[in-house]
Amino acid sequence: xxxxxxxxxxxxxxxxxxxxxxxxxxxxxxxxxxxxxxxxxxxxxxxxxxxxxxxxxxxxxxxxxxxxxxxxxxxxxxxxxxxxxxxxxxxxxxxxxxxxxxxxxxxxxxxxxxxxxxxxxxxxxxxx
Length: 128
What we know:
mainly alpha, 0% strand, disordered N terminus
């Protein structure tokens, strides 16, 4: 009996992580400083380990499913998603500049956003 308890706890943790990541991804649709895509990817990674039902829902979702399939099979990102991510990061950085953020924070965020943008741009596009 004790052997199944850690698995249950681990599974619960993965399910909780997937659910929280999905919720944060949804909130990120409305808040420009909170990115959506990384949270959806975390949810897609954690869901099969914790909640097969949530995993099936993600894969069958009309907007999220095809993107996840392209990512899982070819590490591909659609051009529109690349553009949207880069524009959103740029607008977020400009927003931080206008809000008067510390130059150190602006520098770190610029390096982070440039790194993420470079990674995204170099990913292949899904084959249709």
